[in-house]
Design goal:
Structural class: mainly alpha
Strand content: under 5%
Order of helices and strands: HHHHHHH
Shape: globular
């Protein structure tokens, strides 16, 4: 998992500056601006764990903000806002990664969380992403399942298998 460092903080500052500029130009809803200001570090961290391309992640966050600024009804305040933002970001990120690789894949999930560290070696990409969202971000099973578009049972199974793999390494 990528920890937010000084370099990534400067990138998220760039994203916040671009969002502020876009807010002035497009008259973005204050709620949308506030939501993204609160989520930009988490979105960037998630994106960097998914693909390790700062420019692509930054552009996806800005594009998502502009989309949400134009349609603020997509982000109604409530408990699901965090989940909705991550789900929309994940879809956009997958599209951009797939586009950059200029290929179609039957299992888009394989495009995310490709990096294997020694700790996560032996885990599938789906398991790495599930662990990141559940334990690094602290989301509920329902929220993670919603973001990853899985059933809660499938998610629990993936996390259980991942934990088994990690425990065998001890």
């Amino acid at each position: 998992m990528v920890a937010l460092n000084i370099r990534s903080r400067s990138v998220t500052t760039e994203v916040l500056d671009a969002m502020t500029s876009a807010s002035k130009n497009f008259g973005a809803d204050l709620l949308v601006s506030r939501i993204f200001a609160e989520k930009v570090h988490d979105l960037f961290n998630y994106g960097m764990n998914a693909c390790d391309d700062q420019a692509l992640v930054k552009n996806c966050i800005i594009e998502l903000f502009l989309h949400a600024a134009g349609r603020p009804e997509l982000l109604q305040e409530g408990e699901s806002v965090d989940t909705d933002v991550f789900k929309m970001f994940r879809r956009l990120l997958v599209r951009q990664i797939t586009s950059c690789r200029q290929k179609l894949t039957s299992d888009i999930r394989t495009d995310l969380f490709l990096d294997e560290t020694q700790m996560t070696q032996g885990l599938t990409n789906l398991q790495r992403e599930a662990l990141f969202l559940k334990f690094q971000r602290g989301l509920t099973y329902r929220e993670v399942a919603n973001i990853m578009e899985l059933t809660i049972e499938d998610l629990r199974s993936q996390i259980s298998k991942a934990v088994d793999v990690l425990l065998r390494k001890k």
